[in-house]
Amino acid sequence: MIKIRKLKQYFDQNKVLDGIDLDVEEAKTLAIIGPSGCGKSTLLRLILELDRPTAGSIFVDGAEVTKLSEDQLFPIRQKMGMIFQSSALFDSMTVGENVGFALKQHTKLSDAEIKKKVDEKLELVDLSGTDDLMPSELSGGMQKRIGLARALALDPKIILYDEPTTGLDPITSLSIETLINRLAGHLKVTSILVTHQLSTIFRTASRVVMLHEGKLIEGGTVADVRNTSNKILKEFIAAGLIE
């Protein structure tokens, strides 16, 4: 579903990504781990083409997005939903308005059809009946789930998660992880999960890779990662288990 070749992203002399090759299989969940500031979120922004890479190519569902214009990118971006670390809800809009925002902006659906879609997505994230609430009335975990419902509004084939469980208590994190698994299983979406939370990785990932000093370290399955002989990956996992 996503193919990345020789991807580089430099900021002045800082080589954030330095020749990344990566394949993301359809309907699988890839976890990208690594320390803060290693380029995980940068990689997501490049896949969405919110930024242009210094060099290299990114293919999304067969289209080389790094060569497309803004107009050409629009239908590709509609295939992708993004879950931001901060949830990034519009404070002045209700839950229903937040979830239905993309539908109102980018489709010709009637208000009644949008309402039906919004209700469907809220039910998917176990928050039916919250459409008239404001984001300020929700807990952090509920805001994350509303962000996910909004990302699902256009029925994307790909979901990008940027630290979806950071700052949440263990029980709320578990509910988000269960939701990620349910969406992968029920909707067959392709997921890329950027996180340093080992519990989230171990519970959701089909495959794990690590970003380190601009390069990728292949981790493999969760079982492979737990038993890795790679020194850098082993130290990162051990430190996370101590936390």
Topology of helices and strands:
Layout: E1 2-11, E2 14-24, E3 29-33, H1 40-47, E4 55-60, E5 63-64, H2 70-77, E6 80-83, H3 95-106, H4 111-124, H5 140-152, E7 158-162, H6 170-187, E8 190-194, H7 198-204, E9 207-212, E10 215-220, H8 222-226, H9 231-242
**What is the C-alpha radius of gyration, as a whole number of Å?**
18 Å
Structural class of the secondary structure composition? alpha/beta
State the total count of DSSP E strands: 10
Give the overall pLDDT as a whole number.
Answer: 92
Runs in which pLDDT lies below 50 for 5 or more consecutive residues are: none
Number of helices: 9
**Could you tell me the strand content as a percent range?**
15-25%
Order of helices and strands: EEEHEEHEHHHEHEHEEHH
What spatial order of strands do you see in the largest sheet? 6-7-8-3-9-10
Q: What does the overall shape look like?
A: globular
Distance from N terminus to C terminus (CA atoms, Å) equals: 34 Å
Largest sheet: 6 strands, mixed
The helicity comes to 25-40%
Question: What are its keywords?
Answer:
243 residues, alpha/beta, 6-stranded mixed sheet, 4-stranded antiparallel sheet, 9 helices, globular
Give a description of the structure.
- Helix content is 40%, strand content 25%.
- A hairpin with a 2-residue loop joins β9 and β10 (215-220).
- The model has no long low-confidence stretch (mean pLDDT 92).
- The radius of gyration is 18 Å and the shape is globular.
- It contains nine helices and ten strands.
- α3 (95-106) runs parallel beside α5 and α6 (170-187) runs parallel beside α7.
- The protein has helices at residues 40-47, 70-77, 95-106, 111-124, 140-152, 170-187, 198-204, 222-226, 231-242; strands spanning 2-11, 14-24, 29-33, 55-60, 63-64, 80-83, 158-162, 190-194, 207-212, 215-220.
- The longest helix has 18 residues, at 170-187.
- By secondary structure, the chain is α/β, with parallel strands linked by helices.
- A six-stranded mixed β-sheet has the order 6-7-8-3-9-10. Strands 2-1-4-5 form a four-stranded antiparallel β-sheet, with helices on one face.
